[in-house]
TrEMBL record:
Transmembrane portions of the chain: 20-49, 61-82, 109-132, 138-158, 167-184, 204-224, 315-336, 356-377, 413-442, 463-486
Name of the protein: Tripartite tricarboxylate transporter permease
Keywords tagged on the record: Membrane, Transmembrane, Transmembrane helix
Domain DUF112: 20-438
Organism domain of life: Bacteria
Lineage: Bacteria, Bacillati, Actinomycetota, Actinomycetes, Pseudonocardiales
Length: 501
């Protein structure tokens, strides 16, 4: 009951005219930027992060809730209409959404995606309300060895499921951990990787890192590979579903959260895995499985509902443990840190009003997303025709303004474009960006927890595994690391002829 009462108080804060306006602005801005080719919700949130600097924390995070869900819907719009997913979680929507659009059913695909986001987000956020306080109360008793083990699990899980190889994932993580080392050592006061620059003594602001790796890196990569042709226009009519469409989509909408929320709440790399699981599930359960890959509406409805519920699930670990497992959650964690707020077990006690207003605004943002974006689908489709040179020049301009606003120093602009070049090189060699962001954010905290654990055990490494929780987590990590090797060892046996056994 306490959670329900706190949520009602949160609605009292989120439903004020001023905060409703910020939520609406967030939904529109998030969708407008997320709908542009090559820009996913993480990049949309990173690009708009500096916009919230002048706002109080509550207004800023209410606006972020709108940007979060608006960017997700925008990414699926691009995926459906242009076959250009803004992020990996929107890849599945293109499998059937783009064939639907090419058959003249783009409006139905967009409607299935929008309502799927709404249903999955509502059910996922309800689960967040019910579970997050319990997880937070349990997490208060977690010690330094357990926290360090959790952070190592986040590192391993994210690097294991993203990218084309684990080596590239760990290389990306190493880049992030190195950037996170820049500045003064908190315990000894020694400078690390500052190269004698006083400006780097406080480290590199996470906003500059996020905007540089996402916005600048992506802009340089696209500019190096695309020409200035406008996108092919696909007509988008009235986004509405017939009774036959609803009969085919309501079950996938309801099944999605049961796959997406649990997978999002654990450190498993975000919505990529659950959306593919949802697609496979819907294909097996559908009577129209022959249409999958050719324009089955279930192939859009299920994965989009799953993706939205997974986004709510990631907020559980981010708010209660301070562990971001997706790029968007990592950028939102950076937003908390810019206001001097550290998500974790005590967040629900110290910043109760802010947290419950944020959770209530997730509901508000989802309703606004549905109300605003269904009629505006043809408008968003027209944004796709912006020539790429103008589009990415604008992104670089706003990224530069945002980075300069962080500290008002020219050095910040230089750092932005150096990190942007690193992001460009990572894309060139197939390194995923998310492990680097996770490394920058969690690296200093992991180092601090490691040192605390070793201090408590007088330097004995056995102190890192002195609790049942830490032991269980390290067993899970060992399974994650050993699973590909075990799978390779099993394949020759599986292929062995029966008569030779």
């Amino acid at each position: 009951m306490d959670a329900i009462n706190n949520l009602i108080d949160g609605f009292g804060t989120a439903l004020t005219p001023q905060h409703l306006l910020f939520a609406a602005i967030g939904v529109i801005l998030g969708t407008a930027i997320g709908v542009l080719p090559g820009i996913g919700p993480a990049m949309a949130v990173a690009l708009l992060l500096p916009v919230t600097y002048g706002l109080d924390p509550t207004a800023a995070f209410i606006m972020f809730a709108g940007i979060y869900y608006g960017g997700m819907f925008g990414g699926s719009t691009t995926s459906i209409l242009l076959n250009t997913p803004g992020e990996s979680a929107a890849v599945v929507a293109a499998i059937d959404g783009n064939p639907m659009a090419r058959k003249g059913r783009g409006s139905q695909a967009l409607a299935a995606a929008a309502i799927g986001h709404f249903v999955g987000g509502i059910l996922g956020t309800i689960a967040l309300v019910l579970l997050a306080p319990t997880v937070a109360s349990l997490a208060v008793g977690i010690g330094a060895p357990d926290f360090f083990a959790l952070m190592v699990l986040a590192f391993i899980a994210v690097t294991s499921v993203l990218g084309r190889s684990r080596i590239r994932g760990f290389a990306s993580l190493l880049i992030g951990l190195t950037i996170g080392l820049v500045g003064l050592d908190e315990m000894t006061g020694q400078s690390r990787l500052t190269f004698g620059s006083l400006h780097l003594a406080d480290g590199i602001d996470i906003v500059i890192v996020a905007v540089g790796l996402f916005a600048v890196g992506e802009s340089l990569w696209v500019a190096a590979h695309l020409r200035g042709r406008p996108a092919e226009a696909i007509p988008v009519g009235r986004p509405w579903l017939s009774k036959a469409d609803i009969r085919r989509t309501w079950k996938p909408w309801l099944r999605g959260p049961f796959i997406g929320f649990p997978m999002g709440a654990i450190p498993a790399g975000g919505a990529e895995i659950p959306t593919f699981l949802s697609y496979v599930t819907e294909k097996r359960l559908s009577k129209n499985h022959d249409e999958f890959g050719k324009g089955a509406i279930e192939g859009v409805a299920g994965p989009e509902s799953t993706s939205s519920a997974s986004a709510a699930g990631t907020l559980v670990s981010m708010l209660t443990l301070g562990l971001p497992t997706t790029a968007v959650a990592a950028v939102m964690l950076a937003a908390f840190q810019q206001y001097g707020i550290q998500p974790g077990p005590l967040l629900f006690e110290r910043e109760s009003e802010l947290v419950w207003a944020l959770i209530a605004s997730l509901f508000v943002g989802l309703v606004l997303l549905l109300v605003v974006n269904l009629p505006l689908a043809p408008v968003w489709a027209k944004l796709l025709r912006i020539p790429r040179p103008y589009l990415y020049a604008g992104i670089l301009f706003f990224a530069s303004v945002g980075a300069y606003a962080v500290g008002g120093e020219v050095v910040d602009l230089l750092l932005l474009f150096v990190i942007g070049l690193i992001g460009f090189a990572m894309r060139r060699y197939g390194l995923p960006v998310l492990p680097a962001i996770i490394g920058v954010i969690l690296g200093p905290s992991a180092e601090q927890q490691l040192r605390r654990a070793l201090q408590l055990s007088d330097g004995d490494p056995a102190g890192l595994v002195n609790s049942p929780m830490a032991i269980v987590i390290y067993v899970i990590i060992a399974v994650l690391l050993a699973w590909p090797l075990l799978r390779k060892l099993r394949k020759p046996r599986d292929r062995q002829p029966v008569g030779t056994r």
